Amino acid sequence: INAEYGGENILITKTNKVFSPHKIDVKTTPTYWWKLLNYETKVLNCEKKQLFNFVQEALKQIDEEKYKQDLDFLRLLLKKAQFLIEQKKLSEALDVYGDMYRKQIGKNHAWFYISWALFYVKDNLDQTLQILQLGIDSGAQPSS
What we know:
By secondary structure, the protein is mainly α. It contains six helices and three strands, in the order E-E-E-H-H-H-H-H-H. It has helices spanning 30-42, 48-61, 71-86, 90-102, 110-120, 125-138, and strands at residues 2-5, 8-12, 18-19.
């Protein structure tokens, strides 16, 4: 199958091998993992624990530095934080947001700051507003 990925023509064989002049390993791209997570969530109806483990494994496969402004990488990290919040592991979720901020992951995306701010919205309005201001100051833009 001939396909386009990231503006580049690639060839996918029946054994799912990808051939590209630039040797893209599709399985290390955030988009691959985000689409697979959506498939597992919607089609296979997996349990939250399985999905959390899946996200953890996916994040290990992705080159953080290369994809730090990639929307799907951001989505995976925010999904990890969401799972941690649902499990009442709030300090671990806060660590995810803090690590993202320190490493400037998702810095250009308003979605990062909104998600992080929502973490505080019930208990600390000042912190919520400070985080939203960080997003404004960084020039973060809405994601499509």
